[in-house]
Amino acid sequence: MSTAPLILAIQNRLHRANYHDLSTPLNVAGVEFAFTGAMRGSDGRALDLVLLVDTTTGDFGDRDGARVRQRVEALSRALDVTASRYVVTLILAGAALADGVDALSETCRVLQVESIPLDQAGKPVDEAAERQLDDRIRVLLPLTLPAVPAEPEAGSGHAIDQLVRALQQDGDKAFLDAVVHASAAGEAAVTEAAAQAVGQPFRGPSEGEPS
Hints:
- The chain is α/β, with parallel strands linked by helices.
- The chain has two domains: 5-140, Trna Endonuclease, Chain: A, domain 1 (3-Layer(aba) Sandwich), CATH 3.40.1350; 144-202, no CATH class.
- It has seven helices and seven strands, in the order αβββββαβαβαααα.
- β5, α2 and β6 form a beta-alpha-beta unit.
- It starts with a helix and ends in a 13-residue tail after the last helix.
């Protein structure tokens, strides 16, 4: 069975974001679950489980929203049985499903990637197409912060840059650096970095400072 170009484009983009392919069908709690593709994140996104469904070719009955929902719900129950901590994201690649999609959002995160202009190699044809693909799966991609100008003007620049500059005046620089650095690895990494920073012993007042 050949893989559709849109599925390949999504997989290639997630590979660049350090996601890895999993063997399919997935075997969970002794039960096999067939999906067009499955991927797992790494580092701060190691608990992200991404399922790819090709709604255009319709393999595994994937043109039927109700059947897709039943399979995802069954997988979710199997993960619960194994006490898995995976956070499941379902990517519907291709034609939109008419039925059952709304109910899927109660079980997992659902992303829809419809037609993206691709070249003969299955890659986005230009930067606009690349941004279009990124926008559809943005929640799975690492946060990238633009470089701060050497001497930025007050009140100008990216909102994140302005926040960093404002906090650096009076804030805890070590805490800020730890959180901003961790933001590239996702929400879980930021939470962990903040918890570790807050958990450090408080520095007592220096000699001569008011207690």
